[in-house]
Design brief:
single chain, 14 helices, alpha/beta
């Protein structure tokens, strides 16, 4: 038989995870090869770009969508296990698991609506998880691109959360350098990270000349960052005589934290986990390019020259 599409893989994949305590991607591959009785010829089939096997690509998407719905979770590098949500879904005996079913799951809706909201606020009417049947070919490409970035962003955050707080602080400084702050890594950032630092994890030059300093707070958290944490950071800045700060977290900010405005002229920029991951993708930090696609159109000037 041909390689099944990723939606056809999701139900047997979730059942497989329910039968084991934890499984690696290698375990998943072996399961599907046996489950679908795939041949070497089928396994050697590549996606159109020729950069990855079709089988591996569809496994990756099946895993990504189950993760977005919080039906499985990543336990460590390349390993996953079923969640309580996944167990409860299987208890309902669904005939299959597809995108229509995932859209009824609150965790999946929250994930996709968050990214679609960001796209609309950016004056782009195309939502990441749109109905592709309603899209033009160009919009479909953009839609697929955003889906890939969405999945990549989630994987980035999960990897960051598995690292140490010190690693995260260094990552934040490196990202700010790639975004144009501080010049070189060597002299750009200074990690403080001491008990008496007043809640400041590092400092970075605002420009190459060091005409101003930005203080950085980096929180590798899973839970919400509330306004009290922002107020503490503002207080720490005041203690340093500083006016500019960046608060970066792997989680998210409460509405009160987002609305909080210091009474003095201190300027605070908040970057949550989703924004952090997107900045990393945009500035090529901890990611690598797999494929480049060039979209071409007719050069009308060439034909008008006659």
């Amino acid at each position: 038989m041909a390689i099944p599409d990723f939606q056809s893989m999701m139900f047997p994949l979730l059942k497989f995870f329910s039968s084991v305590e934890e499984a690696s991607v290698t375990d998943v591959r072996a399961f599907f090869i046996s489950h679908f009785n795939l041949t070497e010829t089928e396994l050697s089939e590549l996606i159109p770009s020729g950069t990855q096997s079709l089988f591996t690509n569809r496994i990756s998407w099946a895993i990504s969508y189950l993760k977005m719905a919080s039906l499985i979770t990543r336990t460590r590098h390349g390993h996953y296990k079923i969640t309580e949500n996944g167990i409860n879904l299987l208890k309902t005996n669904p005939p299959k698991i597809n995108l229509k079913l995932l859209k009824s799951i609150p965790e999946y809706k929250e994930h996709t609506e968050s990214y679609n909201k960001d796209k609309k606020e950016g004056n782009n009417e195309l939502g990441i998880f749109s109905n592709t049947e309603e899209l033009t070919p160009e919009e479909s490409i953009e839609d697929a691109f955003q889906k890939i970035n969405s999945s990549l962003a989630q994987d980035l955050l999960q990897n960051i959360k598995n690292m140490s707080p010190a690693f995260f602080e260094r990552l934040v400084i490196e990202l700010l350098v790639k975004m144009g702050y501080g010049g070189s890594i060597k002299d750009a950032g200074k990690a403080i990270g001491k008990s008496g630092d007043g809640g400041i994890d590092g400092i970075i030059k605002e420009d190459r000349l060091g005409l101003d300093i930005i203080y950085v707070q980096a929180k590798r958290w899973d839970y919400c960052v509330g306004s009290p944490e922002i107020q503490k950071f503002v207080g720490a800045l005041a203690g340093q005589g500083a006016k500019k700060g960046v608060f970066i977290t792997t989680s998210y900010f409460s509405k009160d934290a987002i609305k909080y405005t210091p009474k003095n002229d201190t300027k605070i920029v908040l970057i949550d986990g989703e924004e952090l991951a997107q900045f990393m993708i945009e500035h090529n930090l901890a990611v690598t390019t797999v494929s480049n696609y060039i979209i071409k159109k007719i050069d009308t000037d060439y034909f008008d020259a006659e």
